[in-house]
Amino acid sequence: MTAIRHKPVRAVRGPSQGQGRGLIDERESSSSSPNSKFGDTSMQMSPPTELVEGHPSHESSNPIHSMARLDSQGAAPTTSSSTTVRRVRGKTKCKKLSDHVLKNGPIVLNIPNKHRAPIGENAAWFASKIGELVRNMCELHHDEWKKVPTAQKSKLLYHVKSNFELNMGRYEHNKAVENKMGRAYARLRSNLYRDHYKKYFEGVKANDDEAIARAKALGRETLPEGYSPDQWKLICDSFDATSWKKKSERNKKNRSCLETKHTSGTCSFVNVIYKHEQETKVKPNHVDLYKYTHLKKDGTFVNSKCESLFIEMRELTSSEAMEDGSVEERMEEIVTKVLGGRRSGHVRGMGCGLIPTPLSSSQAQSFTQSDNHDECRKRLEETQSELQGTKATLQVSLAKTARLEEVTEKMQATVDFLMSRIGGLEKLYLFVNFTKTHILSNS
């Protein structure tokens, strides 16, 4: 009896289903089913389980953004039996998370004291789920998270609490949810603006009204997947608002001044500390954390600026004698000093995952002066930006005025010419009448 040889099966990266990338089997299909999109039905994902309203894993059918728009992700159907099918990664549906909640209940989060971001293995699920909920349930035509209606925020919070164990009476839990929702909302609007609207204005001059109108029309006609024309119109109207344009230009300018970049990716700095502590049993201080988050895989710094800043931190650390109880606080002060002073509600070198510690009176006075300086500089930059905008508008008005004066001069010259011709005709008419009268009188 002849043995049957099966074709090899290779594990490849599959689409994201909540946390990380899954593994799927890639097969060479020898026959295609007429009812299958991908030929081999074993390659297809099963549809989401239909859940009742109010279930922890229930996904809202909010009319603002239908969840059905995510069902279109996948690869094109194959037409040849010798062609392998590879599905690419699309928008996360958090299917793995939903299945886990359906079987085991809400997911436990580890949010320590003085933290406003979870740490541990479930932190990525927390970020993915909130990003999905904000994308599918929020109106994105508000220019900032603070202006989103409270009813929508309450609905989002209900779904978050249905999937995660949260105690909203704790300050850390409250800040973790609010901070993550606000950042997800800002990121979604920024991506929409960059990928579907702003690109049509590249190379368009500020005084070219016709080109600006064409760019606006193209941006509004290009409808992103999952948005109705009315929804996209509202979002585009918010992009055309003066406040949004000023904010975009200011953020673009601030981003261009950034000289250092970290290498931790989407993992928060507080989670980097947690993972390092789990692996080495030693908690890294603020200076060591800066090193870990700015090194490449080959062990070198991202650029010379990062290296020089770290060297400066190490020199300050070695030059000062610190007591055991004040080491962590002093390390925080050193990083804050080297990286440019304190930011309101922010710990330098720690991202947004840590709540700032209270300051002593001398530190508060020093940082208050620094904050006042930063505030004055910020207001000066805003004033300069407004002045440049006014100057550009004035230049456009002056150009239009110059063109109007030129047209007026040409019209005046034409009128003078016509009047001169009319004056000559009047003199000729008087001469003819005088001659006629003189002839008739003599006759």
Q: How many β-strands, per DSSP?
A: 4
Amount of helix: 40-55%
What is the oligomer described by this structure?
Answer: single chain
One letter per element, helices H and strands E, the order comes to: EEHEHHEHHHHHHHHH
Given the helix and strand composition, which structural class is it? mainly alpha
- The spatial strand order of the largest sheet comes to 1-2
Distance, first to last CA:
144 Å
- Share in β-strands: under 5%
Tally of separate helices:
12
Largest sheet, strands/sense/barrel: 2 strands, antiparallel
Question: How confident is the prediction overall: mean pLDDT?
Answer: 74
The radius of gyration computed from the alpha-carbon positions, rounded to a whole number of angstroms, is: 34 Å
Which descriptor suits the 3D outline? elongated
User: Could you name the ranges where pLDDT drops below 50 across 5 or more consecutive residues?
Assistant: 1-81, 359-364
Briefly summarize what is shown.
The protein is mainly alpha-helical and 443 residues long. The protein is built from twelve helices and four strands. The chain has helices spanning 95-104, 123-137, 150-163, 171-196, 209-221, 229-240, 242-256, 269-280, 286-292, 304-319, 327-338, 361-442, and strands at 10-16, 21-26, 107-108, 164-165.
List the helices and strands and how they pair.
Layout: E1 10-16, E2 21-26, H1 95-104, E3 107-108, H2 123-137, H3 150-163, E4 164-165, H4 171-196, H5 209-221, H6 229-240, H7 242-256, H8 269-280, H9 286-292, H10 304-319, H11 327-338, H12 361-442
Parallel strand pairs: 3-4
Antiparallel strand pairs: 1-2
